[in-house]
Amino acid sequence: MAKKQDTEDFGESLKQGLLYPWNKADRLWNVLWMLIPIFGMFAIVGYAKKITRALIKGQRKELPAFGSFWNNFKEGIIVVIFLIPTFVVLGLLNVIPIIGALAGTLANIFLIPWLVMNFFMNNTFGSLWEIKKAFNLVFNNATEYIMAYIKTLIYMLVYGLLSIVLVGIPCYMFGGFYFLTEFYNKHH
After folding, report:
1. Can you give the pTM of this predicted structure?
2. Is 90 exposed, middle or buried (0-12, 13-18, 19+ CB in 10 A)?
């Protein structure tokens, strides 16, 4: 009976995540800010942070309002600047043949999502580097994390394919952290 319940929970959770961007579909148009060279990209990054924070806080009914372009732009610049050292470290890891590439891939799958969400919630550079805490939380709850990650991969596949007809692009961008935010909310 427990297996059937888990399957139903998995299916229902996946359905909720896939429908999440559509609950306030007019907010998907915010993807058009990307058309403004450079400035739009930073505003979208800031909006992605706003979405992730809202999901972690339990606001899972609909995408949050975009709000001020310039506030999202400023947040986006801060996010990108703070993430540069992380990308440098991951890039350096990938230069090391086999072991470094494997370590970089495992970090991208198991640590970086939690660390980025931690940074989004705490707004400190140090929160992006709580690697031991992330490692312990993810690996002590590995089954739950892997299930969230599998749902995330399914979400990305569905909306990645729908991106061919353009409709999937904003959903892909704005809802990709849906399942991992559930994990972070329970384990931070």
Report:
1. 0.87
2. middle
Number of domains present in the structure of the chain: 1
Could you give phi then psi for residue 98, rounded to 5 degrees?
Answer: 55, -70
Domain residues for 44? 2-186
Q: Give dist(CA 87, CA 82) in Å, integer.
A: 10
Q: Residue 115 and residue 129: Cα distance in Å, rounded?
A: 7
Tell me what percent of the chain is helix, strand and coil, each rounded to the nearest 5.
85, 0, 15
Tokens of 163: 């991106």
- What is the spatial distance between Cα 180 and Cα 56, in angstroms, rounded to a whole number? 9
For 178, the token pair is: 């849906």
pLDDT tens, position by position, 132-170: 999 999 999 999 999 999 999 999 999 999 988 888 889
